[in-house]
Structures are given as structure tokens and as C-alpha cells.
Amino acid sequence: MAESETPEARHERRESVGRSSGETYLDILGKLAPGAACDRIKPVDADAALPSGMSLAGFDAVFLTGSPLHLYEETAETRRTVAFMRSVFASGTPAFGSCAGLQVATVAAGGTVRANRRGFEAAFARRITPTEAGRAHPLLAGRPATYDAPAIHTDEVEVLPPGAMLLAGNRVTTVQAAEIRFDGGVFWGVQYHPEIGLDEVAGAMRRQADGLVKAGLARGKEDVEAYASQVDALHREPTRRDLAWRLGLDQQITDERLRLAELRNFIGALTRLGREGLLAGDR
Q: Where is the composition biased (Basic and acidic residues) (predicted)?
């Protein structure tokens, strides 16, 4: 589990929802792959290191979390994170990432990232539509013709790396899901957040309330709080049809099993094909 949040963002997220992005991933992986041994590292930190005696090639998979990093900015943190992802590709260990994880893999493999041209995509990515390739790809198995997913991001993939496969997009963000192959490795990723629950969506909105107001998505922080409170309420009572109707959500988000589709599919592919099968491009 590669957590690319900065220490400051890690602290802010824990203050907001009680866990960092990496801790959320570890909790979800514990549900999807009970008994699996998971290690968490922080490639954004200057003192980040793998567990003693371990190499990236010794892992079955690498998962990349979301992050507030802007990959088009040249900083020590972005350099360390991109270098780590290049090492993952070179190791041949299959990887999965959400939100900034997709952006990190894109830049590491030669693509580009930019600020969202169509504005802030906040709370939920709406009407995500698989491409023809995406409809046949195991990453999106079980997803309907269009679906919504938790999402909050101000950056997007501008150009995918050479040879990458676009799997899904929507009106706001062209690249919502992709497969990237580079330097002997394979990465499956999404721009949205299948790993986070509605409580974390509400927390993200509150943390980024100023940005939502600045983007014109809310008149003031009180509007953000009113929306976040409804999302929180639906988290506590996911079968409340009135709240789901008010928020325009269906079971693709309110049902955890359906929301976790991409993570479950990636782990299932590892189990079914093994890393060699994924690297060979079997479908």
C-alpha cells in the first residue's frame, strides 16, 4: 500500500474522518482479501523505505492511494512519488490506483496531467461510461452502461502514455479509468474513489469547502455543510430511499459490494491469473 499523501494531508484527513487514505485502503483490503499480509509505505516522504529484506518484486501487488499532490508541479514530493511508480513498473508487480494513483502512473509512464479543464469534480463522478475496450475489460466487470462513483479532484489526466488503454470517461473528466503498460509492468486505475464510503465523501467535502465555494459549486460553507450532512446521513442509513433520491444516487454507491467493483476485480484477476497472467495481457 503506497500512500502518497503528505504528512500534513495525512493529519488533516485523520482529523476529519479518523484515518489516512492508506489506512482506508488497508481496511478495505482486509475485507476483500482476508488473511493477506499488507505493508504500508509512504513514497512521498523523504525517509520512505520498504520493509527490511523486501523488494517490490516480492509483492503480489501494489496499491496507490489518492493524494493532494499536483503531478505537473516539480517538487521533491512529486519526484519521489513518480520515481517510486517507475520502480513498480520495472519490478513487474501489478498495480492498482485511484484518483492521484492514476495520475502518478500516467506521469511515470510518459503521459501528462493538468488541472481540470471543466472544473472541480466533487463528491461524485456522474454518468461514467465505459469505452468499447472498457466494456470488455475485467477491471470494469459488473459495472452498468453508466454509473456514478465517489470522486473529488481538481486535476485530471491530460494525455495517457503511449500504448495505454482508455476504459471509461464522463462529461467532466475524459479519463476515468485506464490500463497502463510500461517497462514490463501493468497498472489498472480509476480517477474516482471506489475505496471510500459516504462518510469519507462528506469529510472530503468539508475539508475542501473553500475550493467548492470558489468553484461556484456552493454559495457558501453552509451549503457545503448541508450537502455533506445529507451524505453523512445516507452513510448511516444506506437503505434510506428518500436520501438516495435527494442526492441522485443508486446502489452503485450505496451498496459497498457494488461500489468496490474495481478493487474486487483487480484482486480477482490476481487470484485467477497471477501476476504473470496480468503482465501477459490476458483477458
A: 7-17
